[in-house]
Amino acid sequence: MFWFPQIRFTDGHCSRCLLYSDVEYNLNATSAALYFRIEFGEQEVCEYTIAVASVFCLIYPLLAAAAYLLLYRRDSQEMREENKIDLGHFLFLLHIVVELAIVILVLVSSCMVSHGFKLLCDSLLKGRDTTPKILDSCSDAQDFEDWRGYDGSNFYTSLSVATAGSWFQFVAWLMQGLLGLWKLWRLNMLPVLPGIPCCIREE
After folding, report:
1. Membrane-spanning regions, if any (predicted)?
2. Strand partners, 17
3. CA distance 39 to 17
């Protein structure tokens, strides 16, 4: 559940999004007395990534499972067997199409999280150019005593988990979509490309 760290950290910053944030250090900033300004990223960025994860990892699977359960529990007397099979194939085809669309949305979400995290770290690492040097790595910013009224004590760990989890989610949806396409091909629901050995079905 990679979006939990992101939700917790967003709430800890008064519902502000840390992705794509810009940090400006004051000239008199030191490790003992740290002064900097944070320009937070657009809140819609975090809202999109959280919505994609929650809707397509929680709500959509439940709806899909309910649809298949209702399909196979229908009274056989109300529908002929061949029509029931056709309806099942149609729902399966619709399910695969939706999954492929989800793959694209999750890919966009993963890229936004990764790029936003990178830009935040690049901005924080400007502290390496100060005299004296404030930090050596992005994770060192977790040790700042003052985060301008916000709790940044665990931001690097939270966003690292969110980044890794978002790409894991993308790979999982991609594999599920590819397996669905393979199943459609096995059910003769995809066109066969002539002349390609891998597309020749056994009779």
Report:
1. 48-71, 92-117, 155-179
2. 41
3. 10
Geometric angle at alpha carbon 134, from 7 and 4, rounded to 5° = 10
pLDDT at 171: 92
Structural domain boundaries enclosing 90: 3-199
Q: Which residue has 């991609």 as its token pair? A: 174
- Of 163, 140, 162, 164, nearest to 152 by C-alpha is 140
> Per mean pLDDT, which range of 73-82, 93-102, 139-148 is the poorest?
73-82
Give the pTM: 0.75
Which tokens hold the place of 94? 């619709």
Q: Which two tokens stand for residue 191?
A: 């066109």
Q: What is the pLDDT averaged over residues 32-57? A: 77
Task: Give how many domains the chain has, as a whole number.
Answer: 1
